[in-house]
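So, who can interpret the following?
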Amino acid sequence: MTLPTFKLSYPEALLCEVLAACDQKERIDAVQGFIEKLGDEKAFSISHVNGVSSIVAHALIDAYGIERVPSHWIREHEENISRISLYLKELDRVAEKFAGEGIKLIALKNGGIARVIYPCPGCCPMGDVDVLIERNCFRRAHQILIDDGYKFEFRSPLEESNLEEAEKSGGSEYWKKLSDGTKLWFELQWRAVSGRWIRPDQEPDTNELMDRSIAISGTNVRLLSPEDNLIQVTLHTAKHSYVRAPGFRLHLDVVRIVEGQIIDWDIFVKRVMK
């Protein structure tokens, strides 16, 4: 099978250089070229459309100093810091409630990256919080969320809010309003990667993932082992066909795990081939 190829537009290629930069100097050079070649308005527009304006804003602050960066960039970064910080505070709070009932909770994807791996919450844009628990804890976890004020509801109009069907499929969705009025979507999963996207017999075993997971100091939130974490975000990116929304952000999950964690590549390959 021949895979389709996609050619980035010139503005997308410039944006990609900013996001893919490996060190601060490279990032500063890239973001300066990004602004100079496109102009501020177009640079902001394409960054915003791709959901990475807060990340570019941080690079601009490093490049020019906060006093020389236009206010719309600063606002994007500060608003994202505020929102993601609230998400992480809520994640910690839910994990503490779960722990009180003997339920282990793993923060998946960007939630885990923002909580442990990447230092700036303003540079970790995400639209929800995804967590992994063991299947035998699913019903108890559901009730804890309901008792805590979460509303059981799927975002997709094609999915019915039926607990039995949700448990069978691997997960459920909930939402609540946070202290600033933000609507947080919270995904409770017992399957790290749904069998809708890979063969069920190839799914990572949740109990094994939990046994290999890492405790995080100062919180009851846990993180997948580095190798499992990389496999999970890679499969998630593939599920989104590499280019569908949220696009660039998904690839950043992969990059940040590779750069922020020590990967045993022999173990990684072994688990991929399993």
